[in-house]
User: Fold E3 SUMO-protein ligase PIAS4 isoform X1 from Gekko japonicus.
Amino acid sequence: MAAELVEAKNMVMSFRVSDLQMLLGSVGRSKSGLKHELVTRALQLVQFDCSPELFKKIKEIYEARHSINTDLGQPPQQHQQPPPTHRPPPEALSLHSSYDRSSTVPRTALSTPNIDYPSLYGKYLNGLGRLPLKSMKPEVRLVKLPFYTVLDELLKPTELVPQNNEKLQESPCVFALTPRQVELIRTSRELQPGVKSVQVVLRICYTDTSCPQEDQYPPNIAVKVNHSYCSVPGYYPSNKPGVEPKRPCRPINLTHLMYLSSATNRITVIWGNYGKSYSVGLFLVRQMTSAELLQRLKTIGIKHPELCKALVKEKLRLDPESEIATTGVRVSLICPLVKMRLSVPCRAETCAHLQCFDAVFYLQMNEKKPTWMCPVCDKPATYDQLMIDGLLSKILTECEDADEIEYLVDGSWCPIKAEKERSYSPQCPILVVGGSTGGTLDVNGVPPPAPSTNGENGKVPADVVDLTLDSSSSEEEEEEEDDDEDDDVGSRRKRPRLYKKDLASAC
Assistant:
């Protein structure tokens, strides 16, 4: 049945407008519209309602067209070698150009065993499946994702075109996987239970040809694969008031809902039409892990220590226009991401600083939430720009008892020992009380000069007051204070109580 289905679709692809109208009219379908609309309508009819009667009708129309060519003296199409310029290469297929395949697909293509079925009938979106114009417009390009290695391009980024004035639009895409692609998926390892490393993913972005575009979902997006809906990443909760939650726009894995056989798959993108233009693409990819990217970086991304040393010299080179000469620069051996000692020091080649971060944690963080921003200077640091600092890697093995080093002008380095935490010592003067000749000691234990006995203006200096007296004094001290107050009733001011101990802090 699958072979008959493929044969029927290939026959439909070779029909002219009159043949398509005859086929659609025989089953009571609309015959109006452009050729690409008739082709899509006929292919959908074959895909979802291919009865024996319909297959017989398709074959009759196809054989009738072949017999007409024979009666006109033309050689049979199955023995006719098509000119090389008549059939465009499969990779040139586009969905936004004029479609006319009335004589481009020879009959011999129907029986070719190595035919690339997706290139013939697999790229239909919004009812469009056309050949390119002579003057091609710039194509939409998607940014390269380090964790996804593209194996095949199943559908080039294609614009989502509204079919009516409704806010909610549906755009279908029908395609089939080749046996080689199916085998790649089936034999790939599992990243986790039920998730293969080789996947068919859907990517969506803005329709902008000026530069490679990042993934961006349209409003109200939903993706249906065959007869089931595929889960789409949700929104990150926002902790700030008045800030809308953000949605992580990533490739959508469709593999677990697809037919891994020669049967065709139907993917429908449901999206909200609110003025902005979006494009979608389908790709066969191999998803990588942070450990695999780290191993690749260690293989091809290490910068030789001598080159790093030359970079240090360049940074510290004397600038004749500068009034201040830089004699050294400090570099921490602690990762700014996790506050742990560096294990694989790296930075982006575009960064102007010498400070490194740990490649292990950087890749793990971007695997969960890809931002690819340098944690030191907060500038883009993509995977292709990362390099491992060979000089700092060597220093890490030689310097195990320091958390910071200093690069010197000649490219050498020296460790900077961490200062030990100072034990607490009172910074205020220590009062020595308890005698008629009270005094203080400074922080070095040296007593200051003795004060005048007469004091200023002939007044007797007051005894030192204990400023650290606890509010919860003993009853004995309270009684002693009461006795002192009774003895000095006639005096205008009370005499301060003296602290009994020898030393006290003045602060």
The first helix runs from residue 2 to 13. The chain has a mean pLDDT of 75. The CA atoms of residues 153 and 283 lie 5 Å apart. The longest strand covers residues 148-159.
